Amino acid sequence: MRLDKYIAEAAQCTRSESREMIRAGRVSVNGAVCKRPDQQVSEVDEIGLDGQSRTHQDFVYIMLNKPEGVVSASSDRRDTTVVDLVRSAYPRRELFPAGRLDKTSTGFVLLTDDGAFAHDILAPKRHVPKTYRVTLDTPLTREMAEGFAAGVTLADGLELSPAQVTPLSADGLTVRVVLRQGVYHQIKRMFGVYGAGVNALHREAIGSVWLDDVLAPGQWRELTAAEVAEIAVR
Q: In terms of CB atoms within 10 Å, which end of the chain has fewer, N or C?
């Protein structure tokens, strides 16, 4: 890979900006200043910018705490998207959400530019579980819990895979739901079969990776390599 391409991707800047940095002597290769933008480098080389090591990432994986009112899309003409919330930090990345949350829902959205990874974790045969905290307008009943465990048949006849629902509050209005498939408005439609409405829905986890408590709505961080592996191997 050319050095200017490496710096552009590592520093999230344009190729012309990276060439300016290199010619200004701000870039080093294996400890020595390099002013040649066309210098070939590889992953074994140590690249520095302004004295700080710069690691090239083929892909990025981001944990975002989606706020209410933000849409799960890469772009939208009317509304703020989940990608808009991180775009300034990744101006050169073509990010998209790996899975969606409704506009009114909140919680863990995984953003990436790794299409193969996203396809893999969303594939029905993988059954990567998604965990949600749900607020209902009527208490959870035994009928609901047993129905979810057996597999709900929606009003339109669609038969869903078994899911788990457990109470989180004494009044039964706050519950935790674990799904292993993705159907449009699935949780709302499942509870609707039993005449219950969903007042709030918050995704807590994807696979065994839970949303960080320290992330306020709209905040994000990159997943660690271990977390990416945990989700990928499910």
A: N
Q: Are strands 27-29 and 47-49 parallel, antiparallel or unpaired?
A: antiparallel
Tell me which residue of 160, 17, 143 sits closest to 91, measured CA to CA: 17
- Model-wide pTM > 0.85: no
The tokens of 207 are what?
Answer: 């696979």
Contact (Cβ atoms closer than 8 angstroms) between residue 191 and residue 138: no
Catalytic site residue from 102, 137, 171, 213: 102
Comparing C-alpha atoms, which of 148, 154, 138, 149 is closest to residue 193?
154
| CA proximity to 117, closest of 73, 58, 43 | 58
- Has 102 been annotated as catalytic? yes
DSSP annotation of 177: E
Cα–Cα nearest to 95, from 127, 63, 128: 63
CA distance 92 to 75: 15
